[in-house]
Specification:
- By secondary structure, this protein is of the alpha/beta class.
- The chain has 2 domains: about 10-20 and about 275-385, Aspartate Aminotransferase, domain 1 (Alpha-Beta Complex), CATH 3.90.1150.10; about 20-275, 3-Layer(aba) Sandwich (Aspartate Aminotransferase, domain 2), CATH 3.40.640.
- It has helices spanning about 20-35, 45-65, 80-90, 105-120, 135-140, 165-175, 260-275, 275-295, 325-335, 350-355, 375-385; strands at about 10, 75, 95-100, 120-125, 145-150, 175-180, 200-205, 215-220, 300, 315-320, 340, 340-345, 360-365.
- Helix 6 (about 165-175) links the parallel strand 5 (about 145-150) and strand 6 (about 175-180).
- The relative contact order is 0.17.
Length: about 400
């Protein structure tokens, strides 16, 4: 007898959006089927189509994030590669960095490597137990040799949105470069690099942008330069044995992920047409629905901001069930109810120390544009049943 496929509810969009706009897959298949070549390597028709894709995707991203010079948008595999490129290409021996206690390992690990290798130093600005940050604590942490401030736009643990615009303004006044990790906000929270004074915007394609995995980028202000740390073929200046100095070629050696870029272009076009504000409002609504119900369940501890503050957070909710390990809760949610969540430390031990959940972590629910009210209701019902006794 054929086994019936179980119903599944995917609530782990903070890790990756599972369902994408239909045009994303269509664009990937179309590129693979009808183009399928590298850009900058051929003057034949398919090669020109590849060139157009690379140009137009950069153009669409520049529009989405209000980046004035599109040649300053560099293609990356993910936020982690973007952060590493910025930190290692920008910081010099003796530089000082200010960051928050909510940062992901994508920031703290390369900083620790640079501390060891180049003697850079950093100061961590603590958030409070709710995961809230005071922007003026950043200003207090600035030193004469502070070169850079790093701030996660929204925590992947609490979901709280950081005071990016305020910190960006403080950095601009002091002549300090400002790096923003937009892993949880690109595509779900409006981002304007000019208004927010963002010098290094690190973003990924596979989360809120609803594009394919293996895509993302780094948008760099024209005020700053970076050293490259990968050199090779770029399809330009091929008669020279040194890496090209012009952007973006200086940072984009080798063959790019063209299938992924085709999907990313379609995803960004979808967001530009639909509006990031529409996506944000839908996710805010689902988060409110979830929080209001879960706050009433005895035996559940919620972290981050309470219901009523959804405009200050993205659709990420961390919780723990009294008397149960997060891994036990996650297993039961999946096995018994078909609900997929993320458990543990979420690669952000600093954030868990801040909210008092280190070392066990939390159970993280994260909602996306394609989740439904019914799925939220089912998740709440599951939690109620799990805490009955």
């Amino acid at each position: 007898m054929k086994k019936q496929k179980r119903k599944e509810i995917y609530l782990d969009s903070a890790a990756t959006t599972r369902q994408k706009p239909p045009q994303v897959l269509k664009a990937v298949v179309n590129y693979a089927t009808n183009v399928g070549v590298s850009h900058g390597r051929g003057t034949y028709a398919a090669g020109i189509q590849a060139n157009e894709l690379v140009f137009e995707t950069r153009q669409a991203l520049a529009k989405l994030f209000n980046v004035k010079r599109m040649d300053r948008i560099l293609y990356m595999k993910n936020v982690t590669e973007a952060v590493n490129t910025a930190l290692k290409g920008f910081l010099k021996p003796g530089d000082h960095v200010v960051l928050s206690s909510l940062e992901h390992n994508a920031v703290i690990r390369p900083l620790n490597k640079l501390k060891k290798d180049r003697g850079i130093d950093y100061t961590i600005v603590p958030a409070n137990s709710l995961g809230r940050l005071n922007p003026y604590d950043f200003e207090k942490a600035f030193k004469p040799n502070t070169k850079l401030a790093c701030l996660v736009h929204a925590s992947n643990v609490t979901g709280n949105i950081s005071p990016v615009q305020e910190v960006g303004g403080l950095c601009a006044k002091k002549g300090i470069a400002f790096l923003v990790d937009a892993a949880q906000t690109a595509g779900v929270v409006p981002i304007d690099t000019q208004v927010m004074n963002i010098d290094f915007l690190c973003f990924t394609g596979h989360k809120g942008l609803m594009g394919p995995p293996g895509t993302g980028g780094l948008a760099v202000s024209a005020k700053w330069d970076l050293d490259s740390f990968i050199e090779g073929g770029t399809g330009s200046n091929s008669d020279k044995e040194e890496q090209p100095s012009q952007w973006p070629d200086k940072f984009e050696s080798g063959t790019q992920n063209y299938w992924g870029l085709a999907g990313l272009r379609a995803a960004v076009d979808f967001l530009l047409k639909t509006s990031v504000m529409v996506v944000q409002k839908k996710e805010e609504y689902l988060t409110t629905q979830f929080l209001k119900e879960v706050e009433r369940i005895k035996g559940i501890r919620l972290y981050g901001l309470p219901s009523g503050a959804e405009k200050e957070r993205v659709a990420v909710v961390s919780l723990n069930v009294e008397g149960k390990d997060p891994s036990e809760v996650g297993y039961e949610l999946d096995e018994k109810y078909g609900i997929m969540t993320r458990v543990g430390l979420h690669c952000a031990p600093l954030a868990h120390r801040t909210i008092g959940t280190h070392p066990i972590g939390t159970v993280r629910f994260s909602f996306g544009y394609y989740n439904t009210e019914k799925e939220i209701e089912n998740a709440v019902k599951a939690l109620k049943e799990m805490t009955k006794h």
